Amino acid sequence: MATNNLFLDIEGASSLICSFSYVSLAMNSTRNLVAAARTVAGRRIAATRPRRQFSKYWKPATLPASQTETKQNGIRSFHGQVQLRSGATEASNPAMAFPCLDALESKSATLEARSLSSGPEPSYTSGVTLKYYCKEPLLLDWGGVLPEFDIAYESWGELNADKSNVILLHTGLSASSHAHSTESNPKSGWWEKFIGPGGCLDTNKYHVICTNVIGGCYGSTGPSSIDPADGQRYATRFPILTMEDMVRAQFRLLDGLGIKKLYASVGASMGGMQSLAAGVLFPERVGRIASISGCARSHPYSIAMRHTQRQVLMMDPKWNRGFYYDSIPPHAGMKLAREIATVTYRSGPEWEQRFGRRRADPSKQPALCPDFLIETYLDHAGEKFCLEYDANSLLYVSKAMDLFDLGAKNQAASSTRRAAHTHRLETGQAEDREAAMCSLTLPDSPYEEQPESEAPADLNAPVERSSGPPQDLVLGLKGLRDHPALIMGVESDILFPAWQQREIAETLRKAGNKSVTHVELGEDLSLFGHDSFLLDLEHIGGNLRQFLG
Ligand SMILES: N[C@@H](CCO)C(=O)O
């Protein structure tokens, strides 16, 4: 039996009205309804009254006064109300209602019923796309292999005769290839206003291609795909990915389409990382680069923010170490992860203007569930996303972002690893499964705080600016010295802060690039933080249009 939507109302000292509804495939007898109500109520008040006390003291005083049954998609839901009488002394204060938790349980119940009646059915899909199937294996940077893979992609604008007008558009973390509406999928895309005839990505001139990244869940091969080796979903048997792996897969698509060189590689956020990586990996095949709100390597704060998202998700028991595809997806963990992510995507100043300190309903008592408008906004953002995107994709793609580092040392280490793994594949040596498994162990002793230096630090002292970008990055980006580059950032971005785009621009210049355009949008122009790239057509779009010519 599953239960949901419980509202508790303490009436006086001795009775409790328990409204309940639950979905069930079988249960409908009056006796069971009462039992359901008691179970539900007992669970809710367990925090203030241990359950055994509950069963001892709270007895049904009435049978359900009314009960209704609804049926949707073959799922039967029962709703009713029962009065329970208490024989216990009252606590000093009434127990609090938690509608936000009830809603979560309700969602679990609905999903459970759905999976029982119709089998698992992932809701993350963006509609019709083109698909490129690559039957050649893809060796990944950390030694994993995809024996074959699909790339979902969409395109807009005519491809010219010599295929020289292609713009490869890279997505942010959660976007699909659907950047703009198409004939087969007329829904608005995530850059609907940026792409089109005469637009920033002008489809009168350019053939724009956007792909879903490998590791994703919108048609490209990812953890929810079937492993051809055993016919089961990869789940967390999917190998660790890097940005460079995603870009290599995209270039396989370009090979398949006969496109030798891009007019431009364009992307924002994670796509801003990839637009640089494309140039670094395939300098001869990329004409120009636009990297918006991106970086040349992830910094610890952004890794930390993604770490917290992954942790809340992995702590959801429904995540089940990644093997949830036959069951209920970890929607609660996903919801929380998206709430944290949303905090990093927008900006304090925007929320100051938009929500201030307003509460959703100031006439009500403050609650521990979402209450301030900003809380209800985050709750909504989490709710919207939690079943749209595959949880394992979030883990893999976000980890790939953490691993991003275009510094020369990291590139060299990656090349060495790739050479060893290529040799293994070419000589047909079996993989050493032990070595390929994650052998990370927790440290024997917890992280220890380092002792403070003797002299007290002056926390208000101005931050010393280093004399220039790190040499490791300069060496790492030296292959881009001849590529015209647009590097754009937004002052209110806390996830990819503006200093990271300054760093890219300075690094490119130091590497000898004389065609770097660096634009930083101040708070007076763009208040939307990291997500400005999705919203600010005038400034983000305008500068991009100018750069592309
Ligand atoms: N809000 C964007 C930003 C991260 O790229 C996304 O979810 O994709």
Automatic annotation (TrEMBL):
Record-level Gene Ontology MF annotations: homoserine O-acetyltransferase activity; serine O-acetyltransferase activity
Domain AB hydrolase-1: residue ranges: 165-506
Residue spans of biased composition, Basic and acidic residues class: 423-434
One Pfam family of this chain: Abhydrolase_1
Record's keyword terms, sorted: Transferase
SUPFAM superfamilies in UniProt: alpha/beta-Hydrolases
GO biological process: cysteine biosynthetic process from serine; homoserine metabolic process; methionine biosynthetic process
InterPro entries (UniProt xref): AB_hydrolase_1, AB_hydrolase_fold, HAT_MetX-like
Region (Disordered): 415-434, 443-470
Record carries keyword Ion transport: no
PANTHER family, alphabetized: HOMOSERINE O-ACETYLTRANSFERASE, SERINE O-SUCCINYLTRANSFERASE
Annotated NCBIfam families: homoserO_Ac_trn, PRK00175.1
Protein name: Probable homoserine O-acetyltransferase
Lineage: Eukaryota, Fungi, Dikarya, Ascomycota, Pezizomycotina
